[in-house]
Amino acid sequence: MIYVLVGALALQIAFSGGGGQQADRGGAIAEISEKPFGQIALWLLGIGLVGMALWRLSEALFGQAGPDGDKPSKRAMAAGRFVFYGFAAYSVLSFAAGESGSGGGSSDQQSQDITAKVLGWPGGQWIVGIGGIAIACAGIWIAVRAIMRKYHKHLKMTEMSQKVRRALDISGVFGGTARGAVFATAGGFAVAAAVQHDPGQSKGMDDTLRSFTETPVGPWLLVVIAIGLVAFGVFSWFNARYRKV
C-alpha cells in the first residue's frame, strides 16, 4: 500500500509539481488519513507493519525458509529489516494515535538532520560517505537481483498460473529496478553531502524522487520511476500471497 501511494504521489509531482505533497512514507500516511475511514486504514496498516516486523524478527531468531536460511548473513539482514519495520510501524501507529509529527514528518528534513549530526562527529565525513556508498551499493544490489529474478526462489512458483507468473515478473523486475534506482540515487546524494561537508546535499525519498525531474528528459524519468514504485507495491502483494514462510 505504501509503495503504491508513494508512486501515485510521485506521478502527481511529475505532472503537476505536487504542491506541498511528500512522495515518501510520511506523504503516503497523510494521504491515507485524509480519506474516508482513513483512521481505520492507518491502524490496519500499522498492525500490518507490526506483523512484518515480527516476521523479520522470527527469521533473525529461527532462520528463513529455504536451505540457506540459517546463514548468519541472512539472519543479520532479517534483524536489520526488523528494526526498519519496527520503526515504520511505530511511526504509522503514532500518527494514527494523533501524534502527527511522528509518522508524517518529511523524510528530507530527517535525512538532513541526521547527516548534519553525523558530520559534526569526529570522522563524520567518512561515516556519511561510507554510509552513502553502502546505500548506493544496496540500491544496485536490489536492482540486479530484481533483473535476475532472484525472488523466484522465495516464492511458491508451482502454485502460479502462467498469467500470474507473467504479472509477477513484470512487477518484480520493473518494480525492483525502480526501487533500486531510488536507493542508489539517495546514496549518491549522501556521498555528495560527505564530500562537500554539506548536509543540505543529503536527500530523503521525496527530494530524491523530485531530482529525477531535473534530468535532460524532464519529468518523464520520474514518471517511469513512479510507475515502477507502484509496480513494486503490486509485487509486494504477490509476495504476501505466494511467499515461502
Automatic annotation (TrEMBL):
DUF1206 domain sequence ranges: 2-62, 78-149, 174-243
Keywords in alphabetical order: Membrane, Transmembrane, Transmembrane helix
Pfam (any one): DUF1206
Keyword Transmembrane helix: yes
TM helices/strands, residue ranges: 36-57, 78-97, 126-147, 168-197, 217-238
Protein name: DUF1206 domain-containing protein
The organism of origin for this protein: Streptomyces nanshensis
